[in-house]
Amino acid sequence: MIFPSGSGAVPGPDLPQTDEKVTIMQREKSLTRSNGAGWGFALPGFGLMVAFIILPFFFAIWFSLTNQRLISPNPTQFVGLSNYTQLLSVGTILLEPERDENGATLRDDDGEIAYPRLRNFTRNNPDYPKIQGMREWFSWQTGPNDELKRVILAKDVVFMRALKNTFTFVIIVAPLQAGLALLLALLINQRLRGINIYRAIYFMPVVISIVVVAFLWRLIYDGNNGLLNNLLGAISFGVIEPVDWLGQTSTALGAIIGMSIWQAVGFHMVIWLSGLQTISPTLYEAAELEGSSKWQTFRYVTWPGLRNTAVLILIVITMQAFGLFAQVDVMTNGGPLDSTQTIVFQAIERGYGKQDISGGSAISVLLFLIVLSISLIQRYLTRERS
Amino acid sequence: MAIQADNHRLRIAVRYLVLTLIAALFIFPLIFMLMSSLKPSQQLLVDSGSLRAFLPVGDISFDNYVMAFKRAPVGLFVINSLLVTGTTVILSLFLCSLAGFSIAILDWRGKAFVLSAILATLTVPFETIAVPLLLMASKLPWVGMEGFEFGWLNSYRVQIIPFVADGLTIFLFVQYFRDLPKDLIEAARVEGASWWTVYAKVLMPLSGPIIATAAILKFLVMYNQYLWPLMVVQEEGYRPVLVGLQYFFQLNTAWGEIMAYLSMITVPVLVFYLFLQRAFIASIASTGVKG
Fold first, then answer.
1. pTM for the full model?
2. Is some CB atom of chain A closer than 8 A to the CB atom of B202?
3. Where does chain A show beta strands of DSSP type E?
4. By residue range, what is the domain housing residue A260?
5. Per-residue pLDDT tens for A288-328?
6. ipTM at complex level
């Protein structure tokens, strides 16, 4: 989140140092040099961090390689990567339609092409060892006349859906929330009387727990008497039919996205604002003198000054968005039909709900790797080009 | 001239209109929550079809609040949350400022390593350590009133101790202490003050702003805890407000009572926020500076 420009020893220019400088530095060093006091002051806090953040992090890696359960009469065993293969294994199969003696494709009562049952291949079929125990994730028609059916299978279909939903959430929320927050920050950065009142209002949802917000929005999204449906009905004079926002697969994740942005956008607005305020007013004055348009001022003065803020905000939003849990737990429990399952929800459902510490830990480690690689990629893409 | 002045006024008016419309978007759901908490559930659902949803009209009373207290020990949940939050904030300010002082001011063997370990924890979301931490918490030893025992589940300590020290709070103190003038410290040392005296009598009295920032950030995190207590607290006696809310909801409660519960735990925080609005916003902004 925050990385100091220089931690520990300050690297200085490699200039030949005079004796006088060395003695001053030594005097300063010896004045603050104290191993005993240093460790003594740091240890209570740092020790707690080791015990409750760093140690559990390494435990997560270790547990994910075992069959650890929360409570179990059997000793824990090392199982290698099997938790990961269980989560991530995917396979594919091309199904040919069932044909009669003449080679014509058979159709079921609804006129759909009939295919052999998947479980003939995935259950104890020695000819298909690679897809043993897998279930259908999704499929599409292919081949001549679209007669063939390509099926993608996964060992853990629910986890695959959780991955897909979480990535969808992040890919929509990160740019949208960062962009809206920047717009709000630009609005708030105007010199207008009473502007601080607006800033306070925009920020207000941030101090409210996301759990409270989720309960409130459950009532707003309600399919029968929800505020949103009534509002849409009123402004369209009843043309828009009431929608069960959280109850159907096509809208549930979108509803959660909307509410999440409503709650958190003020947080990032404030960070943008502090970035905006670091831009020197003389630059704006110069731009005004040059007669630059509003867009030019933004493009050539404001935006370059916000580079570092932009990187920070993207990384923070991405990290927060991958942690999506409370909204889902309160509003949909992962449903309907797994359409709001998320990575963290799955980790908690296994680690806590099913007391499967190893499975939950494996998901946690995967989440960490995903978050880490995405923030490294973001840093790389937004690096200073010299 | 007159046309220009009118134009200018019109532009200002449009700006205020835009600002106000957006403000309505943020504020109306909260007004809806407050007003609904005062209405019987039947009326609440009917009212949400019109502007009455945002007005204190009809059969207005505090019955929902009374019912909420009757249905569940809401007062106990609030006390649990305040106790856990308050203790964690105080311990955190103390231990994190000590560690920050040590890193910012003192020179000691291994400091660079400790600092990089602390900064590295900033990349670890809590969600990724929650599951192994749950197993740890179920097995950790404790010396309590009844002597030596194992297991931290269903207690206050399991909600407090893991959250006392965190990288962000320590780092905020490190940054703040680094920017304080070194002369003060040297003067105190020359006069023979111990490092403890330097910390407690010289630096901490100058640290009001950063203490407020760290306290507000910690308060928001702790009062809004949900995932962790959901896993480690099953007994009603230790349950915090938000987990209590989830159980409350499962009692098939009427919406009016839910809104009363939500208002009850939200309004104090909002009032607190409105009074300390600048400090709240400054504390969030400080997590972004020097990025």
1. 0.88
2. no
3. 90-95, 135-142, 148-154
4. 158-381
5. 888 888 888 888 889 988 888 888 898 889 989 999 999 99
6. 0.90
